[in-house]
Design a protein that fits this description.
One of its GO terms (molecular function) is magnesium ion binding. It holds the Pfam family TPP_enzyme_M. Keywords: Thiamine pyrophosphate. This is Acetolactate synthase. The protein is α/β, with parallel strands linked by helices. The chain has 3 domains: 170 residues, Thiamin diphosphate (ThDP)-binding fold, Pyr/PP domains (Rossmann fold), CATH 3.40.50; 161 residues, TPP-binding domain (Rossmann fold, 3-Layer(aba) Sandwich), CATH 3.40.50; 193 residues, Rossmann fold, CATH 3.40.50.970. It has a 6-stranded parallel sheet with strand order 3-2-4-5-7-6. A 6-stranded parallel sheet has the order 11-10-9-12-13-14. Strands 16-15-17-18-20-19 form a 6-stranded parallel sheet, with helices on both faces. Helix 2 links the parallel strand 2 and strand 3. The longest helix has 15 residues. It is globular.
């Protein structure tokens, strides 16, 4: 007997389930409602209705980054699909797997000027790894499989599939592929000859350094790196998105995070190193011309993919393939490493890296809250397994430099596109993929400017029962732009904000609002907000008077 046809919508939803998807973020519309209608009946996929498609894409990005399984967002045709653009761009730039499903007009109308018609794939193709249309019903299963495998293959990113309205309502004989078809193929190690060569380079180096980038942030890669460090005490520098690779018991090997401005202890370490092993490094986080301005540092590139070879990034060796297997090979093959962490130079760097902890601002009793006071107190009050998320702005420079994270993908930020507004959506995504959902507090931070990009999602957080404490560092300005404009022009322009009572704003959504107007209130209110079960919003009057120090004391190019 011939196999019965299944609805395309059911094939797509079953494909999502087989791919490991258990949560979908989106906003409905007529061109995609067949998928929503089918999702409504699925017992194990949770559908989260968002307040803006951009935020749905950002929530999906958080799921992809934290879990490694592509996060899924869904939107209708025209403006719905267009609104996904920034979220998908952020995911692709920052290596986070996301699959977007977008509706489109029926095929017979696709070449006509009609209601909500748009060549969505022409818009979304530049910001995704793959953008494809399901032309006929029998392509549905294969196309969904293809976009998941594409999004999951390194370098990871977003993939989008367009589903014409009549295709979604149609039927097909070709069923969803089984779960075993969805994982991307595994990679092996680099060649023995290259690995042996690098092992000898590590043994002979006077000051070898591990420089960990965004693709070194997975649990598997971090585990391999920690095994290497447990055998050989090699100094480590992280980019912002590699945060959490170094555990607390290896803190003596950690020389901080680098990015934006070449003025950190990690920058000084890189400048002195005679061998830098970049592991999962991506220049979107920190361009090589910034940390290697003379183009003369000795580099070994360890990654899934070839490097962007250029004047400032010229590796002597590229170890391509499985980062885990290549690091494990070096751990076994290297016989000895120079104990450079005990050198006077490294001891001086360690002192300089930690000296901020004795600054008087950490003990401020009155006045506006100083960023370091806030960070040191938050560090005391959250556990190492708490997910902490920083939106973009001055807040993220302070937090990513000075907040210690000891577990992978527990301290998150957008460091490729620096997309304003990711803080709250990512917190929602992080909360909802917990097991059970919303069981642990998630902490997120933003400036008042970044928060207003996605503040409407407080409604989503409240209705979903998320357990989130979101702190707003409020100075009534786009401060990250302001202080850089002042550095360039001696004045600022277009940065003034204000006019929002964030406590009342939170309460209007059913959230709990708090305010910290003075340093004397910081510890008490922070404790209350972190203890609150549900969506809590904290308006923190922040002191940015010393913000210029973030970009001062740049290391000269001739430093060696």
């Amino acid at each position: 007997m011939a196999s019965e046809k299944s609805s395309v919508a059911s094939i797509i939803v079953e494909s999502l389930y087989n791919a490991g998807v258990r949560i979908v973020f989106g906003i409905p519309g007529a061109k995609i409602d067949s998928i929503f209608n089918t999702l409504e009946d699925h017992p194990e996929i949770h559908l989260v209705v968002c307040r803006h498609e951009q935020n749905a894409a950002m929530m999906a990005q958080a799921v992809g980054r934290i879990s490694g399984t592509p996060g899924v967002c869904i939107a209708t045709s025209g403006p719905g699909a267009g609104n996904l653009t920034t979220g998908l761009l952020t995911a692709t730039t920052e290596g986070d797997p996301v699959v977007a499903l977008v509706g489109s007009v029926p095929r017979l109308l696709s070449t006509k000027h009609t209601h909500q018609s748009m060549q969505a794939l022409d818009v979304l193709s530049p910001v995704t790894k793959m953008a494809v249309n399901i032309e006929v019903e029998d392509q549905a299963a294969e196309t969904i499989l293809a976009v998941f495998r594409n999004a999951s293959t390194s370098p990871r990113g977003a993939a989008v599939v367009s589903i014409p309205m009549d295709v979604g309502a149609g039927k097909s004989l070709i069923k969803a592929f089984p779960a075993k078809a969805f994982p991307s193929p595994s990679l092996g190690p680099s060649s023995d000859a290259l690995l042996q060569s690098v092992a000898r380079m590590v043994e002979n180096a006077k000051l070898p350094v591990l420089f960990l980038g965004m693709r070194a942030s997975s649990v598997r890669v971090v585990t391999a790196v920690r095994k290497l460090l447990s055998k050989f005490p090699i100094p480590v520098v992280e980019t912002f998105q590699a945060a959490g690779a170094i555990p607390k018991n290896f803190r003596h090997l950690f020389f901080g995070r680098v990015g934006l401005f070449r003025n950190q202890t990690g920058d000084r370490l890189l400048a002195k190193s005679d061998l830098i092993l970049t592991v999962g490094y991506d220049p979107t986080e920190y361009n090589a011309n910034q940390w290697n301005p003379n183009g003369d540092l000795n580099i070994v590139h360890v990654d899934f993919t070839p490097c962007d070879y250029e004047h400032y990034y010229r590796p002597h060796v590229e170890l391509l393939g499985s980062i885990v297997e290549n690091i494990n090979y070096l751990t076994k093959e290297v016989k000895q490493v120079n104990s450079c962490v005990d050198s006077d130079f490294c001891k001086k760097l360690t002192h300089d890296f930690m000296v901020w902890q004795s600054r008087k601002e950490l003990r401020r009793e009155t006045g506006l809250v100083h960023p370091l006071h806030f960070i040191s107190l938050l560090q005391e009050k959250v556990s190492s397994d708490t997910t902490v998320i920083s939106d973009v702005g001055t807040v993220y420079i302070w937090l990513m430099r000075f907040f210690f994270a000891y577990e992978p993908r527990k301290l998150l930020c957008s460091n490729g596109q620096q997309t304003l507004g990711i803080g709250l959506p990512w917190a929602i995504g992080a909360s909802l993929i917990q097991s059970p959902p919303c069981s642990q507090n998630v902490v997120s931070l933003s400036g008042d400017g970044g928060f207003m990009f996605s503040s409407q999602e407080m409604s989503t957080a409240v209705l979903q029962g998320c357990n989130i404490t979101h702190f707003i560092w409020n100075d009534e300005a786009y401060n990250m732009v302001e202080f850089q404009e002042e550095m360039k022009y001696g004045r600022s322009s277009g940065i003034k904000l204000g006019g929002v009572d964030f406590v009342k704003f939170a309460e209007s959504f059913g959230a709990k609002g708090f305010r910290i107007s003075d340093s004397s209130e910081l510890e008490k209110v922070m404790s209350e907000a972190l203890a609150y079960k549900g969506m809590a919003l904290v308006d923190v009057k922040i002191d940015y008077s010393g913000v210029a120090e973030l970009a001062k004391e740049l290391i000269p190019e001739q430093f060696n």
